[in-house]
Write a structure and sequence with these properties.
transferase, about 30% strand, alpha+beta, Heat Shock Protein 90
Length: about 100
């Protein structure tokens, strides 16, 4: 993002959204997961588009050990929504892409 000259506050938000979307894919979906970042707009008004694609939802499975406390999970979607100008999900045969645009 530094090479794209993305302002540091925008880059920080984008990295947090990347972390949330990737974590969601690793925990809740089938592999593989892939990440695509793109820069949109000009110098004055740039945006970062983040796309995480996985192979679709995994079957529910017990991870062993103690269950997670409610305060330790479930905030990812709210974080993505709060930091994104736009976000969404595209489902297709064989996978799901979750995307967000940070401005």
């Amino acid at each position: 993002m530094q090479q794209w000259r993305i302002p540091s506050d925008l880059a920080d938000d984008a990295l947090l959204v990347v972390s949330e979307l990737i974590t969601n894919a690793v925990i809740h979906a089938l592999p593989p997961a892939s990440l695509c970042l793109s820069r949109q707009g000009g110098r004055a008004a740039c945006a970062v588009r983040i796309e995480v694609t996985d192979a679709g939802p995994a079957l529910l499975r017990h991870h062993g050990g103690s269950p997670r406390q409610p305060e330790e999970s479930g905030r990812g979607s709210a974080i993505v929504a709060a930091l994104s100008a736009r976000s969404g999900t595209t489902t297709y045969q064989g996978g799901t892409t979750r995307w967000a645009e940070i401005q």
